[in-house]
Design goal:
mainly alpha, Growth Hormone, Chain: A, 7 helices, 86% helix, 0% strand
């Protein structure tokens, strides 16, 4: 489930970048404003390794199940936060700053989720089948991406 939440928000933000731009950024130079919107988009990708490190280390000591739930909740809350975030016209410079923080939260959650999910699945599987079941998490993500985006639908 975490992968669905993770890629849903990344796909929506990427697809709606042109729509998001005038809402959260002041309209000065349209090219620079669009670049700023996609720089905020890139923030989530840049903090993913940090999320993997932070959540991976904590999961080793606190348990993967509770951290996996926390990561999915963080992703969901950050995604909902972007959906209800007022635009630049309403709150000024706070809008793009809040958007940046929410995208960073999504990136942290995404970075933590993918490793936690694979390890949780592998550890929950019976001996002798852990590699096979752990590998399915990534394989099914890749095949789902091909089915959804490759079909042109």
């Amino acid at each position: 489930m975490g992968n669905a939440v993770e890629w849903y928000d990344f796909a929506i933000y990427g697809a709606l970048g042109v729509v998001i731009t005038p809402v959260f950024f002041p309209a000065q130079d349209s090219a620079n404003v669009l670049l700023a919107a996609f720089a905020v988009y890139a923030t989530a990708f840049l903090v993913r390794p940090l999320g993997a490190l932070v959540f991976g280390v904590r999961a080793d000591s606190r348990g993967r199940r509770s951290l996996l739930v926390s990561v999915v909740l963080l992703m969901s809350i950050a995604t909902a936060g972007i959906g209800i975030l007022p635009g630049y016209a309403a709150i000024g410079l706070l809008a793009p700053c809040a958007l940046l923080l929410l995208r960073a939260a999504q990136g942290l959650a995404a970075g933590g989720e993918i490793g936690l999910a694979a390890v949780f699945i592998a550890e929950s599987s019976r001996r002798g089948r852990r590699g096979a079941f752990g590998g399915w998490q990534t394989a099914t993500l890749a095949s789902a991406s091909q089915a959804d985006w490759g079909s042109g639908a």
